[in-house]
Amino acid sequence: MLIGKAICSISRVHKANDTGAGCRVFKEMLQKYPTLKGVCADAGYRTPMEAFVRNILNKTIVISEHISQGWAIIPKC
Fold first, then answer.
1. Which domain of life does this protein belong to (predicted)?
2. Most exposed among 3, 24, 46, 57, judged by the fewest C-beta atoms under 10 Å?
3. DSSP notation for 15-31
């Protein structure tokens, strides 16, 4: 059962070295869509986003270890 779904891209929204941007964006998305269960992010956001999402927001986070060139079908989180 899909309760909530939102797609948000933060590319070009933050500085290249601002890894905290993912935390801020996901927190804002939770305020707008409180039924979100978690987030998928690439490895560039692992620190500090992984601890923030799991420990502070108590949500699920899936980190993509390998980023391929081009488009691909990604399995559901």
1. Bacteria
2. 3
3. -TT-TTHHHHHHHHHHH
